[in-house]
Amino acid sequence: MIIGCGGAGKTTFAKALHDATGIPLIHLDKLYWKPNWEERDKAEWAAIVERVVEKERWITDGNYGGTMHLRFEQADTVIFMDRSRYLCLYRVIKRMLMNYGKTRPDMGEDCAERFDWAFIRYVYGYNNTRRPKILQYLEQLKTHKNVVILRNNREVRAYLKGFKSAQD
To answer: Do 63 and 2 form a contact (C-beta atoms < 8 A)?
Structure first.
């Protein structure tokens, strides 16, 4: 289970982890968003996530706080991409500019990239509003789950290298 702020590198990391392990990768954004950025209702979304986590092996990429508890319960490993506010902002704005008007492969059908001030504000405030609660919860999870916090590119590369070495 990979979580973190928008722009923290969740999707890129998830793809690399999938490539290194062969574990099926599920992009939550792809499942959550209906065409043209229409949100799923809460009950439908919870049912989708329940089906995802019933599977024996999976990597999920995304937050979605309303169903995070379902993934926490079933995940054996929780990876938190704990990156700086400014790196995340830079990456999100760059992604918006580079993909503007196009639907990324990890997004829902017909969800073309757009400039979204609400999302930029969310990213800007994430480390103050969401991060402390997540870190507190992860501290509790450490007693019975594998919790990994990756704060920089060096840590990301080292973590992935462990899987590549194991497969050699």
So the answer is: no
